[in-house]
Design a protein that fits this description.
The protein is of the alpha/beta class. 38% of the residues lie in helices and 17% in strands. The protein has a 4-stranded parallel sheet with strand order 1-2-3-8, covered by helices on one side. Helix 5 (126-138) links the parallel strand 6 and strand 7.
């Protein structure tokens, strides 16, 4: 072996390769939740579902009832978790627009949001929120007066911006530290590893 073990990083990881790791005896730990691949996958992830649900409840408490969501509902586990958390607390409110892709032209995304009647939009990507916010302000729209913006974690496709949005903090450093610790335990003690989910902070 060239290494005693490995830490799996990234939102997307080849499922076939993951299944091979699960079947073998090579120690590994994933950073980020991974769906079972024949057997449970040891990981340290972030509780995106709960954090997203809490932001939706906050928006509802502020009087919002028509929501837009810009981001995928399928794909990597982190995307699925955000979408599931969003839908879990939608009772009493209405999803009037779902754009399932990211990186769309700001003017087109903003036009769709405005046409839908949404008063608040949830973005899975900070970069999309930044350019839509700029487009809204260029049209003399007040943010958050005319449109409120929520970002589901500020770590994806980062951009430098002085704009602050309602969001949550992903415990990236703690996830990496705990995953490394778990991997060492797997290597040294032969432990099976665990599935750990850490909270996201407002």
């Amino acid at each position: 072996r060239l290494a005693d073990g490995c830490v799996i990083l990234g939102r997307d990881f080849d499922r076939a390769e993951l299944k091979q790791l699960v079947k073998g005896d090579f120690p590994y730990v994933a950073v980020g939740r991974r769906a079972d691949a024949g057997e449970p996958v040891p990981y340290v992830g972030a509780d995106y579902a709960k954090a997203t649900a809490e932001l939706l409840e906050l928006a509802k408490a502020k009087g919002h009832s028509k929501f837009a969501y810009v981001g995928p509902s399928k794909g990597p586990e982190s995307s699925i978790d955000r979408w599931d958390g969003f839908n879990s607390r939608l009772d009493g409110a209405e999803l009037v627009l779902h754009i399932g892709t990211v990186g769309g032209p700001a003017a087109e995304v903003l036009a769709a949001i405005r046409a839908s009647g949404a008063t608040v939009v949830f973005f899975t990507e900070m970069a999309d929120a930044v350019i839509v916010d700029a487009a809204a302000r260029s049209q003399n729209l007040a943010v958050p007066g005319d449109l409120s913006i929520v970002v589901l974690g500020s770590h994806l496709r980062p951009m430098q911006s002085g704009t602050r949005f309602t969001t949550f903090s992903v415990p990236r450093e703690e996830m990496a530290r705990r995953a490394t610790q778990m991997l060492c335990e797997r290597i040294e003690a032969g432990s099976a590893g665990e599935q750990v989910v850490l909270p996201c902070e407002p």
